[in-house]
Design a protein that fits this description.
The complex is a heterodimer. By secondary structure, chain A is α/β, with parallel strands linked by helices. Chain A is built from five helices and seven strands, in the order E-H-E-E-H-E-E-H-H-E-H-E. Chain A has a five-stranded mixed beta sheet. The longest helix of chain A is centred in the C-terminal third of the chain and has 20 residues. In chain A, about 55% of the residues are buried. Chain B has one domain: Orthogonal Bundle (Cytochrome-c3 Hydrogenase, chain B). Helix content of chain B is about 40%, strand content about 15%. In chain B, helix 7 runs antiparallel to helix 11. At the A-B interface, strand 3, strand 4, helix 3 and helix 4 of A face helix 3, helix 6 and helix 14 of B.
Chain lengths: ~170, ~575
């Protein structure tokens, strides 16, 4: 049986570049057709609700804005250990970023994915407002290609469409 | 000498809860709750089509997507005086209940339980004894000795490896940890089971909402779930039974497991019924509407003042002036222009940032007040209001919970003890059991109505020329949520969301009255300022919903909660 693979965009589309993850998912959905064992979902900022979505997958690829001292729009791949190491020491509310916690909790329950990676896009601004900064917007196809590459490493072929549905723009990128 | 402790979870990324407390003589003497992020997100909505507002508002907060979607469509329906077909009411109610079941279970097991449960004690437990305790509390079938032994082996493996994984950051060995090794084991075995049952609740939301998060089935005037019992593409019998089978798995978990675990933890930490009362004015709005005009509700609403249930005053529905006129927001200590209370229809969100100043402005959260008074919202308010209103379902589960805690602890627990940190946890478990019961009632009501031949799901909205105002409320998992909309010529002119955490995490107001978090921390014990577990317990008991927002991953690990002792 083929692996269950999920590609999850996370972030808040009302907070500028934090919408990068969701935007990449929309781009991928409009550019490619994926095999049935691959699920793509824009999860917003699910906090601990991630548990319900991540469980039961063999491979999870997250796409999220990242805060790094690199040029905005830089796309970087983070491996599982880096995700887990960034886990907050004290969880104050259910909304704190939960990528690491989710992986650890599901590992303890033997329900976690075998592999997890994060395709990170360095954000320029995450203040309140709709729309991405130009450098992050320009990075969307690069991040999308990184997702395709990660899938391809795992034997998944996404089929590129002849016309990419005019890159169907989600409402927050109008 | 007093010591200042600052709990500030975020450095580079803004948007979280910061708590400052002064500790003297082993007790909190003063407290400030603040948010480090501007919440002027509503301003995005101005100028948009009111029918689409819910698509935006459900992005306010990633955990509470459905609740902001619902409050938004209700506000527009209220402005237009638009009826909502009863099928749509029931479908919405079932979504809200399923969401709340999911949310409360996750909050307790994945967020709060580890404030009380010491995982490192588990290797010492006797699995047979743990099973015996569990079996004495309920008929839940997954409490066997074998189950307990399997979980204990898992934890032993973690402890032996020196890598505690998900449990790496607990306050292990803290003197405030009072559970026996067996109850710790029992709680962790249910922590694991909770991961499974919360998923069923989430799937229930998806069956009706299309997907989660970000449900797709709402519309101003109803829902978009076409009902046809014989059609594959519509809400048919097959889907309704799928929904029922998911709910039927979750209901016993919350009623037989969650409620008992809270009772056991409460019984073994009775001193926590004495801490954390804070503001004992309570506000809860009616929810689960049962008619098209939203005048009859399965869950009552109202207010209670000064912790006295006899002061109960009902809120009868969204048109009730008692609620509509009562709410104001004050910016004296918040980073916005202005001072004194403004009604949400006139609400302004113009930032005026200063340094954190304990006597000046110190939070991005406004200070909502009801008839000028701070109010506590959330499950405790919801349960006390339901109890005072004489709601039989609330009374039944409250009495049952109190009986269980009294039986396990051997001490008589009274409803008055619910004004406390543990009371908030107990009330959340009671509310979850109540909602679980309503899940069945609502499902039956929906199926009855459909089988009678009513398949109506939507009334199209019509927008008048000129200005109309509307308010939509919802008793959300964290308490009373209200969206206030002003529409002019079919466009949004003003939009304000008064969210539950704004009520609870509110800063002081123009009269200097603290908000519920701040008041609840006073006199909390603090054994070790470097490890303020007790402060965290009280803050977590409110289920803070602060960072409805930024989710930037910080690979440097700097998004680490800091506890700073000054």
């Amino acid at each position: 049986m083929s692996d269950r693979i999920a590609v999850f965009g996370v972030g808040n589309v009302l907070l500028g570049d934090d919408g990068a993850g969701s935007s990449v998912i929309h781009l991928l959905q409009s550019m490619y057709d994926f095999p049935a064992n691959v699920e793509l979902e824009d999860l917003g900022t699910p906090g601990l609700e991630l548990l319900a979505h991540v469980a039961g997958n063999d491979v999870v690829i997250f796409v999220d804005a990242v805060a790094e001292d690199l040029a905005p729009g830089t796309v970087r791949i983070y491996e599982r250990q880096a995700i887990v190491d960034a886990c907050p020491a004290l969880r104050v509310g259910p909304h704190d970023p939960a990528l690491g916690d989710t992986l650890l909790a599901l590992e303890f329950a033997d329900e976690g994915p075998r592999e997890a990676v994060l395709v990170g896009i360095v954000a320029a601004s995450t203040s309140s407002g709709i729309g991405l900064t130009p450098s992050v917007r320009a990075a969307l196809p690069i991040a999308a290609q990184s997702v395709i590459d990660e899938l391809s490493k795992r034997g998944v072929r996404a089929i590129k469409r002849s016309k990419n549905a005019a890159l169907e723009t989600p409402w927050w990128l109008d | 000498m007093s010591k200042r402790i600052v709990i500030d979870p975020i450095t580079r990324i803004e948007g979280h809860l910061r708590v400052d407390v002064d500790v003297d003589g082993g007790q909190v003497q003063k407290a400030w709750a603040s948010s480090t992020m501007w919440r002027g997100i509503e301003r995005i909505l101005v100028g948009h089509d009111p029918r689409e507002a819910w698509l935006y508002t459900q992005r306010f907060c990633g955990v509470c997507t459905t609740v902001h979607a619902l409050a938004s469509v209700r506000s527009v329906e209220n402005a237009l005086d638009l009826d909502v077909p009863v099928n749509a009411q029931y479908i919405r109610n079932l979504i809200m209940i399923s969401h709340a079941l999911h949310d409360h279970v996750v909050h307790f097991y994945q967020l709060s339980a580890l404030d009380w449960v010491d995982v490192t004690q588990i290797p010492k437990a006797d699995p047979a004894k743990a099973a015996a305790i569990a079996e004495s509390l309920s008929d839940w079938p997954r409490n066997s000795k074998e189950e307990m032994k399997a979980v204990q082996d898992k934890v032993k493996g973690l402890v032996a490896s020196g890598q505690l994984g998900i449990f790496a950051h607990g306050y292990w060995g803290h003197p405030a940890m009072k559970l026996s090794p067996e109850v710790n084991l029992l709680a962790v075995s249910h922590y694991l089971q909770a991961l499974e049952y919360q998923r069923y609740a989430n799937q229930a939301v998806a069956i009706l909402g299309g997907k989660t998060p970000h449900i797709q089935n709402l519309a101003v005037g109803g829902v978009a779930n076409a009902i046809n019992l014989d059609s594959m593409g519509a809400l048919n019998l097959d889907r309704l039974y799928q929904l029922k089978s998911l709910l039927d798995k979750v209901i016993p978990f919350v009623q037989q497991v969650y409620l008992n675990d809270v009772a056991a933890i409460a019984a073994m930490n009775p001193e926590w019924f004495e801490y954390g009362a804070g503001v004992t004015n309570y506000l809860s709005v009616p929810d689960l509407p049962m008619d098209a005009k939203s005048t009859k509700f399965a869950m009552p609403g109202g207010t209670i003042m000064n912790g006295d249930l006899k002061t109960f005053k009902p809120i009868t529905g969204p048109k009730d002036e008692y609620f509509r006129k009562g709410v104001t927001e004050d910016n004296t200590h918040a980073y916005y222009e202005g001072t004194g209370g403004l009604h949400p229809f006139e609400g302004k969100t113009d930032p005026h940032f200063t340094e954190w100043s304990e006597n000046g402005k110190y939070s991005w959260v406004k200070a909502p007040r009801f008839e000028g008074k701070p109010m506590q919202v959330g499950p405790l308010a919801n349960v006390l209001v339901g109890y005072a209103a004489g709601d039989p379902v609330v009374q039944k589960w409250t009495n049952l919970a109190i009986e269980k805690i009294s039986k396990i602890s051997g001490k008589q627990v009274t409803p008055a003890m619910l004004h406390s940190t543990l009371g908030r946890h107990a009330a959340r478990a009671i509310r979850t059991a109540v909602l679980a019961e309503h899940a069945t009632t609502q499902w039956n009501a929906l199926v009855d109505n459909i089988t009678k031949g009513d398949t109506k799901i939507f009334n199209p909205p019509q927008f008048p020329k000129g200005e109309v105002e509307g308010m939509g409320f919802h008793e959300a998992p964290r308490g009373t949520l209200s969206h206030w909309i002003v529409i002019n010529d079919a466009k949004i002119k003003n939009y304000q969301a008064v969210v539950p955490t704004t009520w609870n995490a509110s800063p002081r107001d123009d009269k200097g009255n603290p908000g519920p978090y701040e008041a609840s921390l006073l006199k909390n014990p603090v054994h070790d300022p470097e490890h303020p577990l007790e402060v965290v317990r009280t803050v977590h008991s409110f289920d803070p919903c602060m960072a409805c927002a930024v989710h930037v991953f910080d690979p440097s690990g700097k998004n680490v909660a800091k506890v700073k002792v000054l």
